[in-house]
Amino acid sequence: MKALLTRSIEILKKHQAWTGAFPAAPYFPPYRYVWLRDGTFVAWALDWVGEREAAGAFYSFMSRTILKHSYKIERALKRATEGYPLDDATCLHTRYTLKGEEGQEPWGNFQLDGYGTFLWGLAHHLRAGGRGREEYIKVIAEVTRYLCGLWKIPCLDCWEERGDRLHPSTLAAIYGGLKAVLDWLPLNLKEKAQEVLIALPEVVKKEFVVDGHLVKEAYSPEVDGNLLWLAIPYGVLDLEEPVFIATVQKIEEDLRGGGVKRYRGDTFYGGGEWVLLTAWLAWYYRLRGKEEEARELLSWIEAQADEEGQLPEQVPSNLTSEEHYYYWIERWGPIARPLLWSHAMYIAARLPVLVPVCS
């Protein structure tokens, strides 16, 4: 559906703030912030379609914002070394206002996957022809220091849950980010990053494989749609590795209806099917040459667009808990639409992104 592809690009550009930031969902009050994870995938998608200026504006904004708050890095590293938990005062936040300030209302802020994703996206932007700025080199070094010091510390996962555990999807984002920026690191930091890149895959294979497939967290039999990240795009595992193939099969068995759910126990807005994860599975199918299977998922995504071509965060079908769907409707209102990350991942799956970006 070429119309939705064109419309997705228009929507991403339309909602970019004057600062360069991308709100996660412009009309959904809880999401009127810029998350590193969501924003980076949006910028990456725009880079992929040649919108270099828009992508660069995001990376410039995000670099300034991180550097503004980088005094927290030393604080976080010291606190972690001493064995104390990190809190909002001692960690880099996971989301910021569109002006680059920290959010003031309560939120789970110690998340590392967004910072790994940011490094991954920024490296892609630079390799794709984005202008190399001094602030980019500085922020790459600062975020690398942060991740190398904290990667083994439990934190919230990408769904902002389970902050007392390690998560393979988070480790994957850290791995992808560190691997992507090696060329821009000074020797001492490059050596530290390489140490993590050697150790991290061993942790994943040792702690997060159950019955031959990956699981969402240690000591759990469950899969999560975000386990697709381990190969695409972060490259911890190869597409052809048996453990990854088995993981995809388990995701198909446990989480796929028309679209793809996050995980079986999900109750956020009832635990429906997520557009961005459906696009991720379609992306995987395309990388494996399964065009018919990819087309089926892309058609499902396209059917979820409203009259203005806007894609939601999730679709309330195949719900885990109808009671929780109405709970969240009453608390926060209708499901977020458009979710910019949904449009970004539709672009990734719709266009021939036929090699993992980290390779």
Task: Describe this entry's structure for a reader.
The structure is a single chain. 51% of the residues lie in helices and 4% in strands. It is mainly alpha-helical. The protein has a single domain, classed as Glycosyltransferase, CATH 1.50.10. A three-stranded antiparallel beta sheet has the order 5-6-7. Strands 1-2 form a two-stranded antiparallel sheet. The protein has a two-stranded antiparallel ribbon with strand order 3-4. Strand 3 and strand 4 (213-214) form a beta hairpin. It is globular and about 50 Å long. It starts with a helix and ends in a 9-residue tail after the last helix. The model has no long low-confidence stretch (mean pLDDT 95). Residues 6-290 form the GH15-like domain.
At a glance:
This protein is mostly helical and 359 residues long. The protein has helices at 2-14, 36-48, 52-68, 71-81, 113-127, 134-150, 168-180, 187-207, 242-255, 275-287, 291-303, 322-332, 340-350; strands spanning 34-35, 95-96, 209-210, 213-214, 260-261, 273-274, 314-315. A hairpin with a 2-residue loop joins strand 3 and strand 4 (213-214).
